[in-house]
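Input.
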Amino acid sequence: MKVTILGVRGSIPTDGPEFCEYGGATSCILVEADGRAIYLDAGSGLLRAPNTGEAEVSILLTHSHMDHILGLPFSPVLLSDKTLDLYLKKREGLSAKDQLERLMAPPLWPVGVEQYPSEVLFHDLELPMQLGRVQVTGMESNHPGGSTIYRLDLEGRSLVYATDYEHTEEKQSELSEFARDTDLLLYDAQYTEEEYARMKGFGHSTVAEGMKVLKQSGAKRIVFVHHDPRHSDAKLREMENALTDHRASFAKAGDVFEL
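Output.
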């Protein structure tokens, strides 16, 4: 599996010279495996989607909060002539199609999904499932409105995408088991400890809690994602430099991991 970080920012995109090193686009991860291009979330990082040739394309959405879907209307994926399978869990009585059409329909957007060149097939997420030989499993996150944490496995290699996740004792135990021995854990560490004390209940976590999951799960590597939009490159560099475990780092747009 080849994993490319396309978007790292949480909540809202950022712009300016102080956000160039880590990147200002919102959540989007590209996983290339088994002749497939699997996108985890469709934030503004989706605009950086590369040409993946003849690969079959899927998008697995964690949830439909704006920062995780706002790349869709402008995406080169939708502007291609490919068939796109889009997966999202049904929530609050709304199907995947219903949720996405709240964004991509008048008056919020002038055209609907059906008017794009790509053929979009909507799927109400049911896990576990297979995308070719890639096994996809999931667990429910702890986030306002709900969110899905994904695990992708292929031939003994795996990654876990745990964004928009707030730690609790029960959830930490569940996530540690879910991420057991994974090669790559992408973990939401939007807040510093001081910020979390003020933001408890907002649905995000911290570096310290991520390191606990790394230790308890036996994961080989943890990469922190969903950077706070107020955290400049200097702030993120300071937080990253404070890490003392070589298995831990902060995601930068453009990072590539070969599993």
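The chain has one domain: 2-258.
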